[in-house]
Specification:
Order of helices and strands: HHHHHHEEEHEHEEHEEHHEHEHHHH
Strand order of the largest sheet: 1-2-3-4-5-7-10
Distance between the termini: 32 Å
Largest sheet: 7 strands, mixed
Shape: globular
Mean pLDDT: 81
Strand content: 5-15%
Structural class: alpha/beta
């Protein structure tokens, strides 16, 4: 499986919750299968696409994962297991029957959702053509991605997080796609500036909790270190973006989608947006260079209230603290951001690029150091008993 990130408020918390469950009860996969009902489900088209992507796998994911895939597919298409238990010597049939039966009363919608996430993660782990984030461009200036939309129109590259039914929760594949989309925009001579936004009602709810299947708890330190390097590369894609970057926060934002705001050049927010970074409550620490950018932007005391104590900010409060450039009424938000981006893209592009890099070069090296330091600390946090206990406490409260 791919290296899995703890990004945003909830990324590694699932990894630790699964690991703890493994040590005390069963496999990670069983913990995921029996977790609380998901709020959003995959569409039929997403399910069909996942079946097609499964056929692109080059390697064998292993018997445990194949049993998960089989069971989830049967539950999604048939429902609860309705076949007799195979004979004692039909080992393969019995294993399949057990995997399907263990799903119990999971709804077909839930199974479909988990099947899609599992297949997407497997394909992403191999750098598959459907999830490597750099599919061929179309004639319309649109590139094909699985979890986001990338378009270039009139000099504006727009990156839209495109999982509205999942509140734009970020899959493992999407982290690669997001970074690659920034790279593509930075290298495209037709792009003057980039805009990042979200489809639907949310900007981004943080990390998708289904990202963390198949984690071996005995390799927690190694997995955490790999994840920290993946996180570092993702954040550096923002640090090193060479052109003006506008982030349009169309709704609630959590975790990494908040901490990376400090690396944008301009941030517009809908008046219905909220901002939340509940790191301490999960026994974790800031990321996205926010330990440096937020005190610089807000002042130490206000940044500490936000980063240390997890105060959730409204759009107006975020604007007052300097995190947001301007709050725009929600009914006019998208059209107004689009209008402004088009106007900005008419400015001389070389002048914009050179000015942006003059501003960023003054602290680029420091941002890289901050990013690395944050990632190093997160490795220690993710592998700490305190973090694990905080996360398990979170899940216990979530069940109430």
């Amino acid at each position: 499986m791919a290296v899995h990130l703890r990004i945003g408020s909830f990324g590694l918390l699932k990894k630790f919750a699964q690991s703890s469950f493994n040590r005390s009860q069963a496999l990670v996969s069983q913990r995921l299968i029996h977790r609380p009902t998901a709020l959003f489900t995959a569409t039929d088209s997403e399910f069909s696409a996942a079946k097609d992507r499964l056929g692109t796998l080059k390697g064998d994911p292993g018997n445990d994962v194949k049993l998960q895939i089989y069971a989830l597919f049967k539950q999604a298409t048939v429902g609860k297991c309705n076949t007799p238990k195979p004979g004692a010597f039909d080992f393969v049939g019995k294993a399949k029957w057990t995997a399907w039966t263990d799903l119990g009363d999971m709804t077909q919608e839930q199974a479909k959702d988990k099947y899609v996430d599992l297949v997407n993660n497997l394909v992403a782990a191999e750098g598959g053509t459907d999830t490597d984030g750099m599919a061929a461009s179309t004639d319309s200036g649109t590139q094909a991605y699985t979890g986001l939309l990338y378009t270039v129109v009139d000099g504006v590259a727009t990156i839209t997080l495109n999982r509205p039914k999942k509140k734009n929760a970020i899959t493992v594949a999407m982290y690669t796609e997001w970074a690659n989309a920034l790279k593509a925009a930075g290298e495209d001579s037709n792009v003057v500036l980039a805009v990042i936004t979200g489809a639907g009602d949310y900007y981004c709810s943080g990390n998708d909790l289904n990202n963390f299947m198949g984690i071996d708890p005995s390799n927690m330190r190694e997995e955490s270190e790999k994840s920290s390097h993946l996180l570092e590369g993702f954040v550096n894609a923002f640090v090193d973006f060479p052109k003006p970057l506008i982030i349009a926060v169309n709704g609630p934002a959590v975790g990494i989608s908040v901490t990376t705001l400090g690396l944008a050049d301009v941030v517009y927010a809908s008046d219905r947006a909220t901002f939340h970074t509940p790191f301490a409550s999960l026994g974790q620490s800031p990321e996205g260079c926010s330990s440096y950018t937020f005190p610089k932007i807000m002042g130490t005391a206000k940044a500490n209230e936000f980063l240390l104590f997890g105060k959730k900010l409204t759009a107006a409060e975020a604007c007052e603290r300097g995190l947001i450039t301007e709050v725009i009424s929600d009914p006019q938000f998208r059209s107004e951001v689009e209008r402004r981006a088009k106007e900005y893209a008419k400015l001389p592009k070389n002048a914009l690029r050179l000015a942006k890099n003059l501003i960023r070069d003054a602290e680029r090296e420091h941002l890289h150091k901050v990013n690395r330091a944050e990632c190093d600390l997160l490795v220690d946090r993710w592998t700490s008993e305190e973090c694990m206990q905080a996360i398990m406490g979170f899940f216990s409260k979530a069940k109430l």
